[in-house]
Amino acid sequence: MAKYKIEGGSRLSGEIKIHGAKNSVLPILAATLLTKESTIHNCPDLTDVVAACNILRYLGCAIDTQDEDIHIVPEELSCCDIPDGLMREMRSSVVFLGAIIARCGKARVSLPGGCELGPRPIDLHLSSLEKLGVVIAEDHGYLECSVPDKLRGANILLPFPSVGATENIMLAACTAEGDTVIHNPAREPEIEDLANFLNKAGAKVTIRENGSIYISGVQGLTAVEYSVIPDRIAAATYLCCAAITGGEVLLKSVVPEHMNAIFPMLEEAGCAVMVDQDSVFLRMTGRPKAIKLVRTMPYPGFPTDAQSPLMALSCIATGTSVYVENIFESRYKHAAELARMGARINIEGRVAVVEGVETLHGATMVCTDLRGGAALVTAALAAEGMSEITHISHIERGYQDFDKNLASLGANIVKV
Ligand code: EPZ
Fold first, then answer.
1. How far apart are the C-alpha atoms of 119 and 140, rounded to whole Å?
2. CATH second-level architecture of 3-15+231-415?
3. What 3-state class would DSSP assign to 123?
4. Measuring from atom 28 of ligand 1, which residue has the nearest CA?
5. Can you name the residues that pair with 215 across neighbouring β-strands?
6. pLDDT category of residue 75 using cuts at 50, 70 and 90
7. Where in the chain is the domain with CATH 3.65.10.10?
8. Which residues are catalytically annotated?
9. Pocket-forming residues, ligand 1, beta carbon under 6 Å
10. Which residues pair with 388 in a beta bridge?
11. Overall pTM > 0.85
């Protein structure tokens, strides 16, 4: 079992290039099933991407990967089910459901495993697909999906702007008969990236000013070449790593506007943040200040995925910070691990009260989930002494070369 060993105390300084967005490339890989042929550029080298490619191969696609490019030719799909093992490898494999149904007219997938963030229901995915004409039967933990007639456009209101449900509707609707409107869809940049990919392949997806998404069904999608947007959450994480060490970092290949809810929080903590066309520079001197209130919200609000790395920064602040996690039921599992370093965090349901301490001390910790694991690394960079962090496979799902990038900024981190 690989782990990180981190000797805290080095001030980070330097520059790194941000990899393509995990939460963009995954739905786009699912969308390639609807195209004649796809070449995707700027793909991050992540275990979740490997898992998605394994699903595409299992379904019968020919796949070629070359550095950050993935070339997919979805031949005649040989099957339309995803076996339990592959479904469990990646929580977000449910996003393949809409694409498989649109391509094959049926699908068989196991219910996605629970997840370290609390229950991860897919009721909004299923009710939306049913509105588009899918019949779904549950059979021993498997979902048997079929389309007795054909996929037809529908008017869909999402009670919650679920990212995955929005993506599944887009994938099932883009080659359905007639028009689909999604009211109250997710508005994350990754949704726009998926829409741009689909449109480049001949789909007709429009994101209206009022946020609604209009989809006019087309016969089929063509061949397409597309480059994925940078990963705004990886970028936010590296900013927190530089900030907690009182250092500075220049991030290249970012879309600053995707991070507009993150910068003010870092500035309230005392960071100087300067943005340019496709880069962002952060400098921090001295101890961070407390952040009065961090409330995670659907985009364009503060992203839930950046909550834990920012909380690590607040652990050594000169004051008390309050976090409210409004998106996931249980996304504070990292708090107990941070407490082993001397952090003072009180959890009350969705609220976490972080009383800043002067210094953290190195400890042995376990990654509980992807972003929680990144928070442990962030805190260890500033802790006194050595930290060991195990179960780092969680981190490698979403951060390419995390230890190498941090070491290139001067961090004392090794993977063993
Ligand atoms: C996507 O997950 C991201 N994953 C998550 O990133 C991200 O945290 C989340 O969106 C919110 O931004 C990918 O894109 C692969 P949701 P998703 O559907 O689609 C509830 C990371 O660290 N819900 O918007 O699963 C759900 O339980 C990951 O990169 C239902 O109740 O998020 C959760 O509480 C973690 N019923 C909330 O909505 C449903 O049918 C948000 O879920 C669907 C969701």
1. 19
2. Alpha-beta prism (3.65)
3. helix
4. 305
5. 180, 205
6. confident
7. 3-15+231-415, 24-227
8. 115
9. 22-23, 26, 92, 120-125, 160, 162-165, 186, 188, 304-305, 327-329, 370-371, 398
10. 5, 364
11. yes
